[in-house]
Design goal:
URB2 ribosome biogenesis homolog; Ribosome_Biogenesis_Reg; disordered N terminus
Length: 1310
């Protein structure tokens, strides 16, 4: 054994043995039980440690495959179960040499400096195993410098990997890194010398940790990256870096050192000088700044980015550590100042920053300032009284640097200035001119983020000055900047939507005196600086328009004068409005008259400014007159207008007629904004005229009012016309922000249409027939051809032509304008005709003929002798159209819609369904009904792919027809067409549709929904026929004859050729029979036994029953019953039972208390009763099925009570038992019971009203037994719930006196 030991050890230590042989020997020695070495594990670990340390210390020259073999060998040893047993089970001591730790650190350094060798994974694995083992990790924890070195080099290695965006990351590397961070934090907190900790962290870890954090947070993760690393490890590592640096650099123990550096220890300085000076750090913040500004550590391309991303992080650490009381606020400010200056934002250094660096520096500055603002380290009073405004002067200097080097394309630039305003508005006040010019007046923001940041800055600035009642100062600066000759012209639209809303809120809260001061500033500047130099000057004209738009916004936002306003304030307001006209509006009018050059841009801008001022003044005067009696007394309440040739010029009433006409003619060529302002002034004049009684009966003024209305409607009508009948002009979807100053060729349609629509109730009585049709046509087409995807882009204030039309139609105002309502319906019908392609049919075309005055047909007139010739002509037209529809249907006329029209057709039908039929005239009602009837009778699919779309169209059409049947003018339909003819044509068309060879929709529910819509229409039609009590017998006989003779009924009753029968046709026939039975049954109870109508119903039932029962039996055989089919069959059987019961009851004689005969189809009813009881509780059922089943059970019980000799005890017990099982079923919820409650109550009422005392006792006993307390002990809670529900329903039922006494005597037992 000694020879074996001596030989292996000597060969491992010998220089002549090849290294590959040594690896084989070492491997053999480790795994072989035949090799006995004293302390073998320690010897082999020492040998591999010696070999690796010798290589990395340059004492041994080894090949790479040997190094890889050594690392693999070490990894195998560390992970072997043999070593684990020795360490943890046998308690044997095995130590690792410090040289091995040094070798690991050196290997990581080599990997980071060059391409990673193959054995990097082995090194990381060894490192992970060592640090995970409490015994082995002593090699690092006993010597903290080794741990620091390991963490530093591993961090650098991770950084080198992260720098390459397209290289796959080693997840194992980051797992080991996270493990080391955790270990090092524990080790760091065990250190007793905080100064040493600070030195270790700043010297070796600060730079690599900040670089690693930046690379992790800024990396663009891809799908190739590991998700665990992206979502978990990276965040955990960043969190560990924050904790490490905060404890190592900004520990609370370092606070005296930071104070010492800034010479803030005053009274405590002598004491600390003797006791703790040697323990204090020397300039800790300078050391930190030196490290983060050192550009030798990272690449030049990353250095500034790392610095700007690290500064806010470090400052956040200092705040969390030192911001414990107000005494440290000045220290935190000094730290903040040094950090800000380190980014190159000091005076003189900002010129060297590039555009990207400015963006990064501003983002960091924003974060720093927000941190300072959040922690409230700037107290204005304390800074002024105790620190000689140190903070204020610094912030002011930084703000001036930002304004000297404006970055208007960077959102952070605006946010930094906003934070300065929040800190103290005086910081930016010395540079308020530069701020407003660089950040607002001269900047036209396009990017959304920049625009939002600019709005936030301006809103904060104006709100701050408004609270301080100093908003006049800002407006003074803004007016000055607009009027100064600056290199960049101010933008045309000063106020964004959001900013204008906030500004209006600010002005509304201001005292009226201050608002008047602001307005005076604007008027004075216009009078002195702008108006005298306007002629031919485009720049000054633009400035005049901007100030006019500002004045408009301010006056429209101020509080109105009222009766509580002091008289001096009223007089001052009146004086302002007078000077507004004398000093601004009148000179501008005269200037425009003498320079009629409408094609010049300066002329256009001056005209816009003049009209905007005139409109503003006019509206404000009207509002003040309405709310303030004092103002009205100072102002003539109704100025007699100097009538001119055109009423649209009357708003120039203070000017000579020649001037008015000249200005109006010039306005025709000056653009959309002028056009809109003229429309607004015209509407105002119309309102003013109509408000006074003396003008309402003045025919001349009413005529001019009609001319003015025509001017308003037609002036912008061309921008809303359709192109090529199908496509809207592109600008009809342009969004408008509701600002008059933002009206141009693109937004004018929305602005004009909003003006027209919002005043329709005022102007519609004065619209000509042609204008009504044009307005209705625009209303229809703008909604019809709107792109739905655009609706999602609208803001709170944004408007477009389609959105305005859609909101108007949804408001319900259209019905209040009969003429426009009739014109809109005419446009709908015209659109239907154009899509149907039946323009050549003269009879159907006449329904939309403009020559026929459909709007004069206001209601259905019973007395023919009182009809005028015009109305009689309309009646004849409608009758001819109805006859033509019947003729076309009889000839088998069918049409197919092109695919491109399908969506439009559905949209049209949905719009038709949204119209209130009660608001229609008789003619419109009849026209709509006829065109919809023509659609459902004629439209059919041409191939299988069109079936689903055709069903959708027909479903919507039947919905519209059903709505029309509920209208008050429905009787006009039956004047031109018999109800039975309508029903027969509808049923025939549906049979024809469902019987065609390719009718098969994949969507079963769509077809069933279509049948449901048809059923609703048929039901409503039958109800109207019965309620009108006109020709009931004739109509019913025709319906019965049709049902008996139709092909589908013949096949089903005969039972032959059922294989050739379409299931859809059978289903529809059953729906018709069920509908007829349900409608007739609902009217039976309201008739007397001797009523002739009752005889008609009995006769109808006897005829239909010949078909009804056989159809039910055959239908079940040929159709694979869907749940909806089961519901249909149950409803059909229920209808048959009720019809037969009603007939037998009416046939009974007055003397006989029993019916004349028994039920004819009792066997059918009994079989379905058993089937329903079997299915009801067997499995989860739809609520529709349960409702139908409960209705059947009620009808079956009543029929058997009245027309059967059998005892009903078994039926009662069976029904109660099934109800109990149903209510205790697990799928029945509280909402289910609420939906079924009406049907449950009806069934229980029927059971209790028609039972004997003994039967009622059985019912009561079955309910009470569910409430036994034993069910609760057995955890049978649903049984108890069933009993409670049935008890509650029983209480709500009317009980006979004897049964009621029995029930209340039983109550104490519950």
């Amino acid at each position: 054994m000694a020879s074996v030991y001596t030989g292996i050890y000597l060969r491992l230590k010998g220089s002549k043995t090849p290294w590959k042989d040594k690896l084989k020997l070492a491997h053999f020695a480790w795994i072989s039980p035949l090799c006995f070495l004293p302390n073998k594990e320690q010897v082999l670990l020492d040998w591999v440690s010696y070999s690796l340390s010798g290589y990395y210390s340059r004492k041994l020259d080894l090949e790479q495959d040997v190094i890889e073999g050594l690392w693999t060998y070490l990894e195998d040893m560390l992970y072997s179960s043999k070593l684990q047993n020795l360490l943890f089970k046998k308690g044997k001591t095995v130590t690792l040499r410090f040289t091995l730790a040094q070798a690991i650190n050196e290997s990581l350094s080599v990997c980071a400096s060059s391409s990673a060798p193959l054995y990097i994974s082995n090194v990381l694995s060894c490192c992970k195993n060592i640090l995970s083992s409490p015994v082995l990790s002593i090699v690092y924890t006993a010597k903290i410098q080794l741990m620091v070195d390991l963490l530093s080099k591993l961090t650098i290695l991770a950084c080198s990997d992260l720098k390459h965006q397209h290289v796959a990351l080693n997840v194992n590397l980051f797992e080991v890194l996270l493990l080391i961070f955790n270990k090092f934090q524990i080790l760091l907190k065990q250190q007793t010398n905080p100064n040493r900790t600070f030195g270790l962290v700043t010297s070796q870890l600060l730079q690599p940790c900040l670089l690693l954090r930046y690379l992790l947070t800024s990396r663009k993760w891809t799908t190739d990256d590991d998700t665990t690393l992206q979502h978990h490890l990276s965040k955990k590592i960043c969190s560990e870096i924050f904790a490490l640096l905060q404890y190592g650099i900004f520990s609370f123990e370092h606070l005296p050192s930071f104070k010492k550096e800034f010479q803030l220890i005053q009274t405590e300085a002598p004491k600390e000088k003797n006791s703790t000076t040697s323990k204090n750090l020397l300039n800790p913040l300078s050391v930190i700044l030196q490290k983060i500004t050192d550009d030798q550590f990272s690449d030049q391309s990353l250095h500034f980015s790392v610095r700007t991303s690290s500064v806010p992080l470090l400052y956040k650490m200092s705040l969390e550590s030192f911001c414990v009381n107000e005494e440290n606020h000045i220290l935190l400010f000094h730290i903040l100042a040094r950090f800000i200056l380190s980014m190159g934002l000091s005076h003189g250094s900002t010129k060297t920053l590039s555009g990207v660096e400015w963006s990064q520096a501003l983002l960091a500055l924003e974060s720093l300032l927000n941190s300072a603002l959040t922690c409230d380290i700037y107290n204005v009073a304390v800074d002024r009284l105790q620190h000689k405004e140190t903070q204020f002067h610094f912030y002011t200097e930084i703000a001036q640097q930002l304004l000297k080097h404006p970055q208007p394309d960077c959102p952070a630039w605006y946010r930094c200035l906003k934070t300065f305003v929040l800190l103290n508005h005086l910081i930016v006040e010395p540079s308020l001119n530069e701020l407003l010019y660089s950040g607002w007046i001269s900047v036209d923001c396009i990017d959304g983020q920049v625009k939002n940041a600019q709005d936030d800055l301006l809103c904060t600035l104006f709100q701050t000055y408004a609270k301080l009642r100093q908003l006049t100062n800002i407006f003074e600066v803004v007016i000055l900047l607009i009027c100064l000759p600056l290199p960049n012209e101010p933008k045309q639209l000063l106020f964004s939507d959001f900013f204008l809303k906030k500004l209006c809120e600010c002005i509304f809260e201001l005292p009226t005196n201050q608002v008047l001061d602001i307005c005076n500033l604007m008027l004075q500047k216009c009078k002195i600086s702008l108006i005298p130099h306007l002629e031919g000057n485009k720049s000054i004209a633009l400035k005049l328009f901007l100030i006019s738009s500002m004045l408009h916004s301010v006056l429209f936002s101020m509080k109105s004068l009222d009766n509580t306003t002091p008289l001096p304030l009223v007089q001052r307001t009146n004086d302002l409005l007078r000077r507004m006209f004398d000093d601004s509006i009148r000179p501008l009018m005269l200037l425009l008259q003498t320079n009629n050059v409408s094609k010049k841009k300066w002329f256009k801008k001056v005209y816009e400014a003049m009209l905007l001022l005139l409109y503003t003044r006019t509206e404000i005067i009207t509002v003040f007159q309405m709310h303030c009696v004092k103002f009205a007394s100072l102002f003539d309440p109704y100025e007699k207008s100097k009538e001119s040739a055109n009423v649209s010029c009357n708003f120039f009433s203070d000017m000579p007629t020649e001037t008015s006409l000249c200005l109006f003619r010039a306005a025709q060529h000056c653009g959309p904004m002028i056009q809109l302002l003229l429309e607004l002034l015209t509407i105002h004049k119309i309102k003013q005229n109509l408000l006074h009684v003396e003008t309402r009966n003045n025919s001349e003024i009413l005529l001019k009012t009609q001319e003015a209305v025509t001017f308003v409607v037609k002036s912008g009508g061309s921008s809303l016309k359709l192109k090529n009948n199908n496509e809207l002009w592109k600008n009809n979807n342009e969004l408008w922000c509701r600002q008059i100053s933002n009206v141009d060729a693109n937004t004018f349609p929305a602005a004009h249409w909003l003006l027209v629509v919002s005043n329709l109730s005022l102007i519609s009585p004065f619209l000509s027939r042609e204008d009504l049709i044009d307005t209705a046509d625009v209303l229809l087409n703008t909604v019809l051809f709107n792109d739905p995807s655009i609706d999602t882009q609208y803001g709170d204030l944004d408007l477009s032509v389609p959105l305005i039309s859609k909101q108007f139609l949804a408001s319900g105002q259209l019905i209040e304008m009969p003429a426009l309502h009739s014109a809109f319906i005419g446009c709908l019908i015209k659109r239907f005709h154009s899509l149907l392609g039946v323009k050549t049919n003269p009879v159907l075309q006449c329904l939309t003929d403009k020559e026929l005055k459909w709007s004069t047909f206001q209601k259905y007139i019973k007395d023919d002798t009182g009809m005028t010739g015009e109305i009689e002509e309309l009646w004849k037209t409608l009758e001819m159209a109805a006859q033509e529809i019947q003729r076309l249907f009889g000839t088998g006329f069918r049409l197919t819609l092109p695919d491109k029209y399908l969506a439009t057709f559905v949209h049209l039908l949905q719009m038709t369904a949204s119209i209130n039929p009660d608001g229609m005239t008789s003619a419109d009602h009849s026209r709509c009904f006829l065109i919809l009837l023509f659609i459902v009778l004629s439209v059919e699919p041409s191939y299988k792919g069109m079936v689903a779309d055709t069903i959708k169209i027909l479903s919507n059409a039947y919905t519209c027809l059903t709505f029309l049947l509920a209208g008050r003018n429905i009787n006009s339909i039956f004047r031109i067409m018999h109800a039975s003819d309508i029903l027969e044509m509808v049923m025939t068309s549906v049979f024809s549709l469902v019987s065609c060879s390719f009718f098969a929709s994949d969507d079963y529910m769509q077809v069933f929904d279509f049948f449901h819509k048809v059923q609703n229409f048929l039901s409503e039609m039958l109800n109207i026929v019965i309620e009108r009590k006109s020709s009931i017998q004739m109509n019913m006989e025709k319906i019965a004859a049709f049902l008996l003779n139709c092909e589908t009924a013949s096949k089903l009753t005969s039972g032959e050729h059922l294989d050739n029968l379409k299931p859809a046709a059978s289903r529809f026939l059953l729906i018709i029979l069920t509908t007829v039975s349900q409608v007739v049954n609902s009217h039976f109870s309201l008739l007397n036994k001797n009523s002739p109508i009752a005889e008609t119903f009995i006769c109808l039932h006897e005829k239909i029953a010949l078909v009804h029962a056989p159809v039910i039996e055959s239908f079940v055989k040929i159709v694979h019953c869907h749940k909806q089919d089961q519901v249909l069959v149950i409803d059909s059987v229920t209808g048959l039972i009720e019809a037969e019961r009603n007939c037998l009851s009416h046939k009974a004689t007055a003397k006989s208390s029993k019916p004349l005969t028994t039920l004819q189809y009792s066997s059918l009813y009994e079989s379905y009763n058993q089937h329903i009881l079997k299915e009801l509780c067997s499995s989860e059922q739809p609520l529709e099925f349960i409702r139908s089943a409960l209705s059947f059970m009620k009808a079956f019980y009543l029929a058997n009570i009245e027309h059967s000799e059998e005892e009903m005890d078994a039926v009662i017990i069976s029904y109660l038992q099934n109800l109990k099982e149903l209510l205790s079923a697990p799928w029945i919820t509280l909402s289910s019971v609420e939906n079924l409650e009406v049907h449950l109550k009806e069934l229980i009422t029927v059971l209790t009203e028609n039972c004997s005392a003994s039967q009622f006792y059985v019912i009561l006993h079955m309910i009470i037994e569910d409430l036994d307390v034993g069910n609760i002990w057995k955890q049978s809670h649903r049984i108890v719930w069933s009993g409670v529900t049935l008890t509650r329903l029983l209480v709500s039922c009317p009980l006979a006196e004897g049964n009621s006494k029995v029930f209340w005597r039983t109550v104490p037992q519950l």
